[in-house]
Amino acid sequence: KLQRTWHMCCKFLSEDEFAKFILVFPVFKVEAEKKGVAWDKMSPANNPFDQTRAVITASKDLNEIDVKMRAVGMGLSEFYPALMKTTLVFAAVMFDTAMTQAKGEMEKSKGEIAKLEAQLKDPKIPAAQKAMIKAAVEAAKAITEGVAGMGTLYESVPKENKDLVKKYFDQLKALFDAN
Known about the structure:
Number of strands: 0
Structural class: mainly alpha
Number of helices: 8
Distance between the termini: 26 Å
Oligomer: single chain
Largest sheet: none
Helix content: over 70%
Strand content: under 5%
Shape: elongated
């Protein structure tokens, strides 16, 4: 599901669409707060899509929000896809640094996994210890595969989108109040 959402959201993001999003987002944020949906720091715990849905659900008159947003440059029907693309590319750019570090750790993990797998073949190691080693190997492989999968998702983001977000990264970081 995440991969399908990622591909859908990471289609081409034009500079015009992005510029409108930058102008409209603060209006959306104010309207969200008026509706009782606080836009806290952007984080996995504060999913921007859930927050957007909460604003839309809390609003009895979507037309009111749409009119205010259109006055600045983009209505709700254009805003939501732009929000999805922008926030996912923003997260991908933030993820890039972590991914570089994670790749080094993954290489170390592969070596550790190989050592543990070799211990599983050692007849001198008791069965109970082998069971613990096997569980550790499976957990390490799952983590390594998860990180590798995220790298594949990041690589699927169009370079133009990443370049655009990098160009305005500091502005987006302040806009999203992200760390």
